[in-house]
Structure formats: structure tokens, C-alpha cells
């Protein structure tokens, strides 16, 4: 057999395999398309319920009530606002940050933050520190009617005397413990989460 003949057969085999893969992909897409024509299967809450998946059985998860969804949204919003206030800091406007954080705090965290605020302002002013960051995602870890734990991720930059006033990237994961007081979700604890 000549080299050219082998190459032609190889090209035909590869072409046939490509066509078969494309047909299989189209077939799978058609099979996954919901009968209603506007949703792909797998987005349904109860899809596969009762199916044995090897290590257990798929359980249908009911949708949360509207009340619970609103509560979780309020918890995540409160944690995000707190972290946004906490990580955005300018030495020449430190009082605004300090007051914003205090207004969303309660209990021991409020006491500790208030106690350390003067030192924070002094250190930041001496270093001419500025941090600009934004919340990139937030998720509820646990929550009920009067408390919640939320993890918030931020991405931003810091510049100060230590960085020679060049911006350096700073990304944080912060755990916020919330408690409901007089209709407001307030922070009772705030901790940095170490990145693995």
C-alpha cells in the first residue's frame, strides 16, 4: 500500500468520525430539549428524582417559599453592603468608612470595631492607605429567620507607603455573621477566610 493511499484512508476515517460526532451532538441536543420547546431538561427541580446514581438516590428539592427567598436575598444584600463598606477605605476619608461599618454592626463586633477605629485611622493616615474593591460574589452558608452566615468575595487593589503607592491586587473572602435586630440585618462578626 502506498503512503498516499494510507493518508487518503486516514483522512476519510477522520472525516467520518467527525461527521458521526457532530450527528451525536445534535441528537443529544434534540433529546435534551424539553417538550415545551423553551427549556433544556436538567433545569427542572425534580428532574431525575428517584433515580439511582450509584451512591444514593436523586432527591427532588422543592423551591423555597417566596418569603424564604426574600429573606435570603436580604441576608446576602446586608453582608455584601457590609463587606463593600469594610474593604473600601481611604485614609483621607476614614471617618466615612468607619461610620458606615459601625452603622451596619452590632454586639461584640461593633464594640471591637469602635474600640479599634482610632488606631485604624491613625495607621491608615500614616501609611496614606487607599483600598478600592468590589464584591464579586456572595453566598449563603447557613441562615434562618433571625441569623445567617454569608461568605463574600471581593476583588480590588490597595496602595500605600508599603506598596510605594503602586496599586497591588487584593482579593479577599470574608465570612459575615448576621443577626436580625429591629428589622435590620446587622453584622455581629466578620472574619477573613483563608484561601486554600
Tell me what you see in this structure.
The chain is of the alpha+beta class and 196 residues long. It is 42% helix and 27% strand. It has helices at residues 3-32, 66-87, 94-103, 107-127, and strands spanning 89-90, 130-143, 147-159, 168-181, 184-192. The termini are far apart. Mean pLDDT is 83; it is low at 34-45.
Judging by the overall fold, what is the CATH architecture of the domain at 66-192? Roll
Strand segment count: 5
- Order of strands in the sheet with most strands: 1-2-3-4-5
Shape: flat
**Mean pLDDT across residues:** 83
Give the fraction of residues assigned to helices. Answer: 40-55%
CA-CA gap between termini:
58 Å
Sheet with the most strands, sense and barrel status: 5 strands, antiparallel
- Poorly predicted regions are 34-45
**CATH fold group of the domain at 66-192:** Nuclear Transport Factor 2, Chain: A
The portion of residues forming beta strands comes to 25-35%
Query: What does the radius of gyration come to?
Result: 27 Å
Give helix and strand order, one letter per element, not per position.
Answer: HHEHHEEEE
Structural class of the helices, strands and pairings?
alpha+beta
CATH class group of the domain at 66-192: Alpha Beta
Amino acid at each position: 500500500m502506498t503512503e498516499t493511499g494510507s493518508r487518503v484512508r486516514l483522512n476519510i476515517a477522520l472525516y467520518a468520525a467527525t461527521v458521526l460526532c457532530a450527528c451525536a451532538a445534535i441528537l443529544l441536543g434534540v433529546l435534551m430539549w424539553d417538550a415545551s420547546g423553551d427549556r433544556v431538561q436538567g433545569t427542572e427541580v425534580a428532574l431525575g428524582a428517584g433515580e439511582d446514581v450509584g451512591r444514593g438516590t436523586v432527591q427532588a428539592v422543592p423551591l423555597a417559599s417566596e418569603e424564604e427567598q426574600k429573606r435570603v436575598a436580604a441576608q446576602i444584600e446586608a453582608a455584601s453592603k457590609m463587606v463593600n463598606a469594610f474593604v473600601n477605605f481611604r485614609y483621607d476619608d476614614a471617618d466615612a468608612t468607619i461610620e458606615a461599618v459601625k452603622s451596619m454592626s452590632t454586639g461584640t463586633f461593633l464594640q471591637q470595631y469602635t474600640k479599634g477605629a482610632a488606631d485604624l485611622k491613625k495607621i491608615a493616615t500614616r501609611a496614606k492607605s487607599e483600598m478600592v474593591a468590589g464584591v464579586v460574589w456572595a453566598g449563603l452558608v447557613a441562615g434562618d429567620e433571625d441569623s445567617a452566615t454569608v461568605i463574600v468575595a471581593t476583588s480590588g487593589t490597595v496602595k500605600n507607603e508599603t506598596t510605594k503607592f503602586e496599586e497591588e491586587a487584593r482579593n479577599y473572602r470574608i465570612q459575615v455573621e448576621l443577626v436580625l435586630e429591629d428589622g435590620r440585618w446587622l453584622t455581629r462578626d466578620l472574619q477573613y477566610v483563608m484561601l486554600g
